Amino acid sequence: MLQGPSHIYLGSPKLGVPKPATTKEDMNMKTQNSNIISVENLAETYPDGTKALEEISFNVHEGEFFGFLGPNGAGKSTTIKVLTTLLRKTSGKVSVAGYDLDKSPKEIRKVIGVLTQETTVDVDLTGKENLRLQGRLEQMHGAALENRVNELLRMVQLEEFENKEAGRYSGGMKKRLDLASALIHKPKLLFLDEPTTGLDPQSRASIWDYLEQLNKEEGITIFLTTQYLEEADRLCRQLCIIDHGKIVTSGSPTELKQAIGHDTITLSLKKPKDTSLKEKAKKILEGMQGIVEVSDSDGGIVVHAKNGDEIIADVVEALDRNNLRPASLNMSSPTLDDVFLHYTGRRIRAEELGRKTTEAFLM
Ligand code: ADP
Ligand code: MG
Fold first, then answer.
1. 114 contacts: CB under 8 Å, gap ≥ 6
2. 269 in helix, strand or coil?
3. What is the pTM of this model?
4. Same domain for 311 and 192?
5. Gap from CA of 4 to ligand 1 centroid (Å)
6. Is residue 186 part of a domain?
7. What is the CATH number of the domain that holds 268?
8. How many domains does the chain have?
């Protein structure tokens, strides 16, 4: 199927692939490492010459909650389309679930679930009919199908609306039905392309809950793309930050934030004008383990530390012991947006920040 001309959409990977029994040969084809996705030097150039991906490389471990964070046009959907066999790659080496993308696209399609950016629900069918149809396309029948449909309707909390046409569902409900649909054949690896973009906060929160549950309780590996910093921070244990078709940095959200700077603890003393008290406090803080730098701020002291949340109690205690109990205390950590800014010189999304200065910066 992949032998045709390049850059053809091959239809939904969820569609009609019969499920033959796993043979010994299949097992031998699987690589023995714990990487469920392995991507080496993947490049994608569209027929009009747009270089959407420039030799990106990354691995995803089995059981991981993995994220691609990047602004519009970064190359997130292109990556998902290639990995899910919907788009033929220009070059590079990719394996998914132990199968080589070029040699075994059918095997890959059997073990993955895909939630695309656009909804795939049939608006004329009810929620339940949509899931039954999807199940039949996956060669599921009878009680097994009916049980799975009911189980999924329960999971995405659509039981109450199961007999209503999907065309009358809200955006959040359609997304939940899409998610259930992607899970019908119990995939071990789930791809989600911006699953919460455009959803209201409540719908977003429920999608987050389902995804955490699927990853933690059912061990499903998740590959998610997002342009929401909060979503990446909250859900993903490993992240690649992508911009203009390149991976700019990768690591856990905490590692990424720590790599670009320290936490800052800003504190003020009860008698801010008393410089001798301030100097005494600074001496104490400078001698403490874990503190990188101590400096002055307007009427207070700024402490830079690698793990602010771990030492904040020690800071208070040490000052308290010397009768220098702080009057106020404030800790701030770098955000993923600071990480994005650090590597690209731009903020990821002006509207998420609500800062006027960002717009000026982007001009
Ligand atoms: P994202 O999902 O991160 O928003 P995409 O992967 O959709 O980014 O797009 C990456 C780049 O490729 C963008 O510059 C986009 O305009 C371009 N692009 C996407 N699809 C096509 C296509 N079918 N033909 C030509 N260019 C495309
Ligand atoms: Mg996209």
1. 12, 13, 14, 80, 84, 86, 182, 190, 191, 193
2. strand
3. 0.80
4. no
5. 21
6. yes
7. 3.30.70.260
8. 2
Please give the distance, rounded to the nearest whole angstrom, from the Cα atom of residue 7 to the centre of ligand 1: 12
How far is the centre of ligand 2, averaged over its atoms, from the C-alpha of 77 (Å)?
4
Atom of ligand 1 nearest to the CA of 48: 25
- Residue 183 to residues 62, 113, 187: CA-CA distances in angstroms? 17, 6, 6
Confirm or reject: Cβ of 116 under 6 Å from ligand 1: no
> Do both 219 and 321 map to the same domain?
no
CA-nearest residue for atom 18, ligand 1, is: 52
Local structure of 277: helix, strand or coil: helix
Taking the C-alpha atoms of residue 124 and residue 231, their distance in angstroms, rounded to an integer, is 32
Dist. CA 251–CA 13, nearest whole Å: 29
Residues 112 and 41 in one domain: yes
State in Å: Cα 72 to ligand 2 middle: 7
Question: Which ligand 1 atom lies nearest to the CA of residue 74?
Answer: 3
Range(s) of the domain holding residue 60: 24-256
Does 124 share its domain with 174? yes
Ligand nearest to the CA of 48: 1
95 and 54 fall within a common domain: yes
Cα(253)–Cα(91) distance, integer angstroms: 29
- 72 CB under 6 A from ligand 1? yes
Pairing verdict, β 65-69 and 91-96: unpaired
Assess whether 96 and 73 both reside in one domain.
yes
Q: What is the distance in A from the centroid of ligand 1 to the CA of 317?
A: 54
Ligand index nearest the alpha carbon of residue 87: 1
Ligand 2 centroid distance, CA of 239 (Å) = 16
Ligand 1 pocket, residue 332 CB under 6 Å: no
Task: Name the residue at shortest CA distance from atom 16 of ligand 1.
Answer: 73
* Within-domain flag for 153: yes
72 part of a folded domain: yes
Tens-level pLDDT at each residue, the chain (363 residues): 333 333 433 434 444 444 444 444 444 444 445 899 999 999 999 999 999 999 999 999 999 999 999 999 999 999 999 999 999 999 999 999 999 999 999 999 999 999 999 888 999 999 999 999 999 999 999 999 999 999 999 999 999 999 999 999 999 999 999 999 999 999 999 999 999 998 999 999 999 999 999 999 999 999 999 999 999 999 999 999 999 999 999 999 999 998 888 888 999 988 878 888 899 999 999 989 889 889 888 778 999 898 888 899 999 999 999 998 889 998 888 899 889 988 988 888 644 433 333 333 333
